Description:
The chain is an alpha/beta fold. The protein has helices at residues 40-47, 67-70, 88-98, 103-116, 132-144, 162-177, 189-195, 213-219, 233-236, 262-270, 285-297, and strands at 2-11, 14-24, 29-34, 55-60, 63-64, 73-76, 150-154, 181-185, 198-203, 206-212, 223-229, 242-248, 251-256, 275-281. The strands form three sheets. Strands 6-7-8-3-9-10 form a six-stranded mixed sheet. A four-stranded antiparallel sheet has the order 2-1-4-5, covered by helices on one side.
Amino acid sequence: MLKVENVTKKYGNLVAVDNLSFEVNDGEIFGLLGLNGAGKTTTFRMILGLLDDYTGNITIDGKHIDYTISDKIGFLTEERSLLTKMTVLEQIKYYGVLKSIPENKIEEKLDYWLDRFGISEYKNKKIKELSKGNQQKVQFISAIINEPKLLILDEPFSGLDPLNVELFKKIIIELKKKGTSIIFSSHRMEHVELFCEKLVVLVKGKSVLQGKLSTIKRNYKKKNLVVIGDIDPDKIKECDGIEKIDKVGKEYIISISDESYINSIFKAIAKYDNIYKFSVEDPSLNEIFINTVGEKYE
Length: 298
């Protein structure tokens, strides 16, 4: 288990991370979200042991991060960190040795993952000769070659086509099932929503939203009403609590400011003939993120 307890990191007068606390259990995927500059990268660096001049505690299984612990961490960075003049084999051997993997085991592990990702023929190719998507596969292999206990994934699907996104998803779920703790960071909220059981949203280094995703969505006051039927949207829009009405195919998506307005809106819609659907849905994580972060920046 990873524990981040009351961690604060300053750069001079700038507070990059402000009293941050969260836990990631074994076999759990945790979302760390925020706009650029929110403090995510600083948090990653502290977890990796690259920064140690902070207050608070960061531990894995009760132990503070040192080289023996960091060998058990994998990190897929958002930016390319591959040495492009090296071959794939040379690159992974380099990372494997840094992670204290016996040299005679590194190539064996590499062959397995190259086969899983369908790029075995690139083993002796230089990184610069690979496409962006295949470079991302090699970078992912470099992050998991040590069979990490904790895996940090920062925009893992960058440069991937839909088929390879599905492959990455499958492998991430496999790692979770084997007990790997995963921190998942992405600006694509639909990916976060797919994977993450718990999350924290950072604004200027401070947590502004945190907890189980299911609970966050259930407790969020704003809801969406989905209606199929012959209604007059301009007339319905006059009801209290309605923020906007969008037409998506046959459905009207009615965004309301508070679930307390549901009954009155339902009564207004029930007056129309031919109503085939009326359902109350939680907002997407994307909506919650935009509303929460936007409000905090106003």
